[in-house]
Amino acid sequence: MSISPKAASARTREICQMAPIVPVLVVHDAAHARPLAEALVAGGLPALEVTLRTPAALDAILEMAQVPGGVVGAGTLVTPDDVAAAVEAGAQFGVSPGATDQLLDACEAAGLPMLPGAATASEAMRLLERGYDMLKFFPADASGGAPALKAIGAPLPQISFCPTGGVSPGNARTYLSLPNVVCAGGSWVAPADLIEAGDWAGITELARAARQLAG
Known about the structure:
- The protein is 43% helix and 15% strand.
- The protein contains 10 helices and 9 strands.
- The protein has a 6-stranded parallel sheet with strand order 5-4-3-2-1-9, sandwiched between helices.
């Protein structure tokens, strides 16, 4: 079942509004996927982005998709093959570092709501022209951070963003205070050492702290 860009953005906006932080997850062992998702959901972060950067990523999405209360998406979508694999694994939304017509065509045809990446006003305008008004701002820190995003928002108030890339507990509040920011993506809520140690309670505490950042 296909999806229009407008409907895709409406759905990704709903997902982004679920919590101020979307965990950006790099999963190396699919056995960690379910308890990791449960820990993050318990801490108040239900929208989860699993990056397709490891061999275990698709299996991790398959496991996380079964966790009650969670909404699992696939990140680092670059090709139509990525889209097909993500949908088959049970991803409920997609995230890309940038956007190409071929990638967006594939997402729309597959019915996968997409959060496409943009780093400049021209990229954002091109996506808006196609019908996308909920975008990922990436790489956020390297692209000028909150001041750049604030500047882009002045002439393009109809576009909302989820900044990702260099977002931390130290600067997240600054991003989240911008009127054109719905949420931010961050990896600090699921650090590799806690995942390897199986410290799910520790990850839940990090999630709870991140949940308060918008407060």
